[in-house]
Amino acid sequence: MTKTKPAPPEPSGIARALPWLVGAAAIIGGTIYLFQSGSPGSPKAVTSEGVGPFGPTIASAAPPPGAAPEGMVWIPGGEFSMGSEDPTTCGCEGAGHDPMQDARPIHRVAVDAFFIDATEVTNEQYAAFAEATRYVTIAERVPRAEDFPGAPPENLVAGSTVFTPTAAAVPLDSHYRWWRYQPGANWRHPDGPSSDWQTRKKHPVVHIAYEDAEAYCKWAGKRMPTEAEWEFAARGGKAGQRFAWGDNLRLGDKYMANTFQGKFPVSDSGADGFAGVSPVAQFSPNAYGLYDIAGNVWEWVSDWYRADTYERNAVQGVARNPQGPADSLDPSEPQEKKRVHRGGSFLCTEEYCARYIIGTRGKGEISTGSNHTGFRCVMTPAQYQQRKTAAR
């Protein structure tokens, strides 16, 4: 029972020889690579320029430790400006009404290199894990009375929260108007007992609480991404763009992500091709080869949520591999333990929530899943080497 509430292309030809030249540079995949003289050691790459309050993204050009694991891409790591401008003043499509103060100040962050899943973890991938381990997600477990004091026994039924369109327009002051607790809803049955994941094998797995995501990553020899890693990867080497593809939600008349069109929360018109969750990788990837970093389903990351995290990080000058705060504090619900969500979902709309903008943040109570929340994993070079050693 849950609580209601592409990696840059490898240089070739002359570009491959550039690390051995003094002061040499090349433009590869839209990024200016600056190479040091002598041994390739630690060449660096830097985007051509920053944007507004965002400084340039400086990405390492060091090669990956080997071929990327299946379904993953190499993220070179480096230094970038993390966060978001106030979207209510940007004048861009999808700005919404929420100033998102928790995504400021924009500050400098450095992360080490890693591999990351190209897509959100799918139902068929999660099914392989569940079959191998007999793991039972929180949404599949019958809730204990001691965890829900005062709850009538008949309400202690396994299930999860499901988005339910309203019959007519409603005030957008409470999300309880369009969410319901659905007995029997879980990753196997995304809409409730009458639905089946096997008809949605390529859809992202949903109704996943944080520990459910963490358990999968551990089984796969991976881990959950930090918030900084997720944003560095999502930006794809660009600096300051609101979306991976530019500053507008659409390119011309083309939608670039699975979001909500129509009158929220009454009806999603599906103008982007999908009403509700879509299969993964239905829209173009970012420059690093990541799909669905805006829209479709929210993604858990490992950081505890605090509204003042960025203020704390900013005083460090450059925050290096930030792991997030030691505890959670959401001023609006201080009693709840929350971790950060990233990327927005199919329910994002300029009417209500524009947190599909790259630098913005979401949050979720750690034992809560829903039908618009999933995840993807990362693998560090150390984990990669451990996997190679184990395979010998």
Overview of the molecule:
The strands form 5 sheets. The protein has a 7-stranded mixed β-sheet with strand order 1-2-3-4-6-7-14. It has a 4-stranded mixed β-sheet with strand order 16-15-13-17. The protein has a 3-stranded antiparallel β-sheet with strand order 5-8-18. The protein is an alpha+beta fold and 392 residues long. The chain has 6 helices and 18 strands. The longest helix is centred in the first third of the chain and has 11 residues, at 123-133. Mean pLDDT is 86; it is low at 2-44. The chain has helices at residues 14-17, 123-133, 210-219, 227-235, 309-314, 381-391; strands spanning 25-28, 31-34, 44-46, 58-60, 72-75, 78-82, 107-111, 114-117, 159-163, 179-183, 250-251, 254-255, 298-304, 318-320, 338-342, 362-365, 373-374, 378-379. It has a single domain, classed as paralog of FGE (formylglycine-generating enzyme) (Alpha-Beta Complex), CATH 3.90.1580. Strand 11 (250-251) and strand 12 (254-255) form a beta hairpin.
Order of the strands making up the biggest sheet: 1-2-3-4-6-7-14
How far is the first residue's CA from the last residue's CA? 42 Å
Largest sheet: 7 strands, mixed
Helical proportion?
Answer: 10-25%
Tally of helical segments: 6
Question: Quick one: overall form?
Answer: globular
Low-confidence stretches: 2-44
Instruction: Please tell me the CATH architecture by its name.
Output: Alpha-Beta Complex
Number of strands: 18
Structural class of the secondary structure composition? alpha+beta
Q: What name does the CATH topology carry?
A: paralog of FGE (formylglycine-generating enzyme)
Mean pLDDT, to the nearest integer, reads 86
Q: Measured on Cα atoms, how large is the radius of gyration? A: 21 Å
Q: What is the CATH first-level class name?
A: Alpha Beta
- Order of SSEs: HEEEEEEEEHEEHHEEEHEEEEEH
Q: Which homologous superfamily in CATH is the superfamily?
A: paralog of FGE (formylglycine-generating enzyme)
Q: What is the total domain count?
A: 1
Strand content: 15-25%
